[in-house]
Write a structure and sequence with these properties.
single chain, about 500 residues, alpha+beta, 2 domains, 18-stranded antiparallel β-sheet, two-stranded antiparallel sheet, 22 strands, about 35% helix, about 25% strand
Length: about 500
């Protein structure tokens, strides 16, 4: 007969064995978890230390600093050579006299860290490039050592520059004779990213030479310091820009009215504050500022009303603005398309504001007879002398005004409760019929929404040399509630 107590003892022993095995598994899982944490911390610490190492070797007066870092995780498939700056690589190849395509394929691909800084050259008044490469590859080191201006900073760390003065600056930092950029940079604003950057925007601004109104306005935002974090995410390129001061006010609840963009656009902003835009414009164009001041004074004297109060409703509207290359020469140096909310008051204010400004720019000559019998010619601003005309455009009523002597033209149409104003009838017609670039598709690919301030840049249509330093494709930027920006690169 089977002993029931023996059966119970067997079950107890089995239960204790199972618990022991379970405890052993938990113990090993705990050890594995601790190992992963230690390994992760070690990798992060090493990568952070690597970032700071080169920062401490660059002169304190560097205008900008860009650093590409090899992946922190061994299993990462994204390398430095994958960064989407082919145009910029071509510029570096020209500067350092390297064969076309060689920088990305033969240097970046075999480097664990690459840093580019721009430092002022006191002799030339221009900027010198300082390129610092961390690589154990003999062929990379050999190429760098062939440069007329090169310096071994540390083991596996070589610098090449565009002048001997820049080499002297590196030596001064290395020998402790001058401060490094590390003292100016808040490295806590850098994440562990494939690319990080620091820009002293005020100093960058002094080396730029804007060629048109849009570029002049752009430079007004270049103040203070800017930090860049750039990495690959979900198969695309994402970045963030951190700055102490906001770039421009936006109407956070407004949703862009623009559904399509012409292929030749170079900048599009939605949810802009029109009053702030005019303020910035007047800062870069003294003549415009003078005209506004004269216009306001003249209007007060002649019509007994305050110009700013009269047009406050118009200027407070959230607007969408598209900038494009000028199809024909005009007073602005570029074409634009402006979209803003429509009502009868807005239309009257818009036409009247344009007429008043034109009247100040082109006053009417009136001959007057003085009491002593002499005659004088007086210049009088007469807004009513400029007459808006009407034209049918594909079933839509277009209002337009042209003044060839001032190289000025404007045309607008009311569509879907919006006023769409352009610098010419031709531009307006092109915009109304375009379906080349779908705005919502670009926004969706970045994971953003259509509300608030959005900024689209299309570098391939820039006339400014800055296009050579930007990635190809459309760059979408969205201001954050803080003072930073979030963005992505939408490759073609």
């Amino acid at each position: 007969m089977e002993d029931p107590f023996q059966h119970q003892n067997s079950q107890a022993n089995l239960s204790r064995s199972q618990h022991s095995t379970l405890r052993a598994k938990k113990f090993w899982w705990l050890l594995a978890g601790i190992f992963v944490i230690i390994l992760s911390a070690a990798l992060i610490y090493r990568s952070t230390a690597d970032q700071s190492e080169i920062l401490s070797l660059v002169p304190i007066d560097s205008v900008f600093y860009l650093q590409a870092n090899g992946p922190a995780w061994p299993w990462s498939k994204v390398e430095i050579a994958d960064l989407p700056f082919a145009n910029f690589y071509g510029q570096l190849e020209t500067i350092f006299s390297w064969p076309a395509g060689s920088f990305q394929k033969n240097i970046l691909a075999f480097s664990s860290q690459v840093t580019l800084a721009a430092v002022p050259n006191q002799n030339s008044g221009q900027l010198d490039f300082v390129l610092i490469i961390k690589s154990k590859n003999d062929s990379v080191v050999s190429v760098l050592n062939q440069s007329p201006h090169h310096l071994l900073l540390k083991k596996n760390l070589t610098a090449v520059t565009t002048s001997e003065e820049a080499i002297k600056k590196l030596l001064e930092v290395q020998q402790g004779q001058t401060f490094s950029l590390a003292g100016n940079v808040n490295s806590k604003k850098f994440g562990r990213q494939l690319l990080i950057g620091y820009f002293n925007l005020s100093n960058v601004k002094s080396y730029l030479a804007p060629e048109n109104l849009a570029e002049e306005i752009f430079t007004q935002f270049l103040t203070g310091e800017l930090y860049l974090n750039f990495n690959q995410s979900a198969g695309g390129w994402q970045f963030s820009l951190v700055r102490e001061k906001t770039f421009i006010s936006s109407s956070a609840k407004s949703k862009t009215s623009i559904k399509y963009l012409p292929a030749d656009f170079f900048e599009f902003s939605s949810g802009l504050n029109l009053s702030e835009l005019f303020s910035i414009w007047s800062q870069v164009d003294p003549e415009l500022n003078k005209t506004f001041s004269q216009t306001a004074a003249a209007v007060t004297a002649l019509y007994n009303f305050n110009l700013a109060d009269e047009f406050s409703d118009l200027l407070s509207q959230p607007v969408d603005l598209i900038l494009l290359p000028a199809q024909t020469p005009n007073v602005f140096g570029l074409d634009f398309i402006l979209s803003l909310p429509s009502d009868n008051k807005t239309l009257n204010q818009l036409e009247r504001l344009i007429n008043i400004i034109l009247a100040q720019k082109k006053p009417t000559a009136v001959d007057r007879l003085l009491p002593d019998g002499s005659q004088v010619t007086e210049l009088i601003a007469e807004p009513d002398s400029f007459v808006w005309q009407t034209k049918d455009l594909a079933g839509q009523v277009v209002r337009y005004l042209s003044e060839p002597s001032l190289n000025f033209a404007a045309a607008y149409v009311v569509s879907n409760n919006r006023v769409v104003l352009a610098t010419s009838i031709e531009r307006l017609e092109q915009f109304l019929s375009t379906s080349e670039i779908v705005v919502s598709d670009l926004v969706d690919r970045c994971g953003f929404d259509l509300a608030g301030n959005l900024i689209f840049l299309n570098p391939q249509n820039f006339t400014w040399p800055v296009r050579d330093y930007l990635p190809p494709g459309v760059i979408l930027i969205k201001p954050l509630e803080s003072s930073g920006l979030s963005g992505c690169v939408i490759e073609n």
